[in-house]
Amino acid sequence: MEQTRAGEYDAFVAARWSVLFHLARLLTGGDRHRAEDLLQESLVKLWFVWPKVADEAPEAYVRKVLARAAARSARRRWWGERPVEELPEVAAAGDMSAAVAERSRLEAALARLPPRQRAAVVLRYYQDLPDRQVAETLGCPVGTARSHAARGVARLRELLADVIEPVG
Amino acid sequence: MERGVQGEGMEHGVRGDGGDRVFADGPPTRSGASDRPDVFESRLAELMHASREPARFGPRHREALRAGVRARRRARAARRAAGSVLAVAGLGLGLFLWPHGQTDDRPSAPGPRPAVSPAPDPSGPPSSTPTGPPTAPETTSTVLPDAPTVTTSDPPTGTASSTAGDDGPSPTATASETWTAPPPTDTADPSDTPSSVISATG
C-alpha cells in the first residue's frame, strides 16, 4: 500500500516538476532557491494528503499551497527582497539570448510586485485561471483577487513597457 | 476600481500613437466587461509560458523531498507526543488537586424543612425522650425523699413500741410491726429519736 502510494506520488512529482517549478519561480519573482524551497515544502504537504487528493486534483492542491505560501512569504521576509527604484540592467545581447533576457526582465518585474498581486497575476496569466479560481486559490474574495490582478497588471505595464513592444 | 487601475496602467503602458498603440481603446480584461484579453495581457501570458526553462526532477530533489517528509513526520510525532504528555500531566494535576477527604467537602445535611413538612415526626421522639429521663429521676427522687420522711417519722413509733412492747400490744405496736422493715435506722442512731419523735408529733 505504502509502496503503491509512493510510486504514484513519485510519478506525479516527476511528471509535473518542471511546470510546478516554473510556477514557483514566477511566484517568487525569479528566486530560484526560494522557488525550490517553496516547491519542496508544498510537495511534502502533498505527500501527507496524497491518499485524499491523488484521485482528484493533486496539482490544484500544490498550486494552492504554493500560491498561499508565496503570498505569505513576503510578510515573513524570507528572502529579503529589497525594492529598488530602477530595474536591474538588461544584459547585453551577446551575453544571453533574447528569450533569456526577456525572462530575466519578466522575473525582475514580477519581483517588484507585492506578493499577493504577483500571485494573482501569475495564477491568472500563467495558469490561465478565471477570477473565481484565483480567488479560491488565494483564499480571498473574488473582488479582491480581481483587484490584485488588475493592479499587478497595471504595474507590469509600467515595468515591461519596453519589453512588450507595441504590435502593428 | 479595476477600470481605474487599468486606466492608470494605460497611462504608463501606452506607447506610440494612433491605432498602433497597444491599448488604443483601453485595456479590456477578462475580468472586465469584455473577456477578451488585450494585447499586453496576451503578450504577458505568452512571455510567462515562454520563460519556462526545462527542469528535471533529479535524485537530489527526490532526496530532499524524502528528508522533508521524514522531518515533517518526526515533527508530527513529536507534537503528538507532547500533546499526550500535556494531557497526562493535566489529568495528574487535576487528580492531585482533587479533594481527598470526601466527608469534608460533602454537602451538609439537607437544609431545614418547613414546619409543615413531615419534620414533626422526627422531632417528636427527641422531645419525648428528653422528658422521659427526667421523669425517671423524679420517681426515684420522690421515693428517696419519702423514704427518709417515713423512716424518720416512723422509727419513733417503732422505738416507742419497742420500748412499750413489754407492756403489751397496742395499735401502735401493730403499726410498728409493719414498719419493722427499716429497723436499721432504729438501731442506727438513738440520737435521732428525739427529732423523730418531734417530727412524728409534729
Automatic annotation (TrEMBL), chain A:
InterPro entries xref list: RNA_pol_sigma-70-like, RNA_pol_sigma-70_dom, RNA_pol_sigma-E_actinobac, RNA_pol_sigma70_r2, RNA_pol_sigma70_r4_t2, RNA_pol_sigma_r2, RNA_pol_sigma_r3/r4-like, WH-like_DNA-bd_sf
Cross-referenced Gene3D superfamilies: 1.10.1740.10, Winged helix-like DNA-binding domain superfamily/Winged helix DNA-binding domain (1.10.10.10)
Domain named RNA polymerase sigma factor 70 region 4 type: residues: 105-156
Keywords per UniProt: DNA-binding, Sigma factor, Transcription, Transcription regulation
Protein name: SigE family RNA polymerase sigma factor
Domain RNA polymerase sigma-70 region: start-end pairs: 20-79
Protein family (similarity comment): Belongs to the sigma-70 factor family. ECF subfamily.
